[in-house]
């Protein structure tokens, strides 16, 4: 998780909920905070998600993953890194343990 996201979440929670709500007791605080967090995490559009709600963004990712998986002939993961260029020595000495 990136620090910017955490700071943004904390600031919004403080400004929109904690500074504006008088909690009656701990049980009331838990219910109100859980409802606010659920709204923030599912219903509210986020700029980091191209102004989609997290639920819509998750559906987009699931749909894209399903399409990609359908096109793949193998269930094996593809390599993320490109192979070393020809002539580059990729053998490394093993480090001694301990």
From TrEMBL:
Q: What's a single GO MF annotation on this record?
A: nucleic acid binding
Indicate the segments forming the Integrase catalytic domain, all copies: 1-54
One Pfam annotation, family name?
rve_3
Q: Which Gene3D superfamilies match?
A: Ribonuclease H-like superfamily/Ribonuclease H
Q: Alphabetically, which GO biological process terms does the record hold?
A: DNA integration
What name has this protein been given in UniProt?
Answer: Integrase-like protein
Q: Which organism is it from?
A: Roseibium marinum
Lineage per the UniProt record:
Bacteria, Pseudomonadati, Pseudomonadota, Alphaproteobacteria, Hyphomicrobiales
């Amino acid at each position: 998780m990136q620090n910017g996201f955490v700071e943004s979440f904390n600031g919004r929670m403080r400004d929109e909920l904690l500074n504006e709500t008088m909690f009656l007791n701990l049980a009331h605080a838990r219910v109100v905070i859980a409802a606010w967090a659920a709204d923030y995490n599912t219903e509210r559009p986020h700029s980091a998600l191209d102004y989609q709600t997290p639920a819509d963004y998750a559906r987009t990712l699931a749909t894209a993953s399903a399409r990609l998986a359908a096109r793949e002939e193998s269930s094996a993961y593809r390599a993320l890194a490109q192979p070393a260029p020809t002539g580059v020595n990729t053998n490394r000495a093993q480090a001694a343990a301990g």
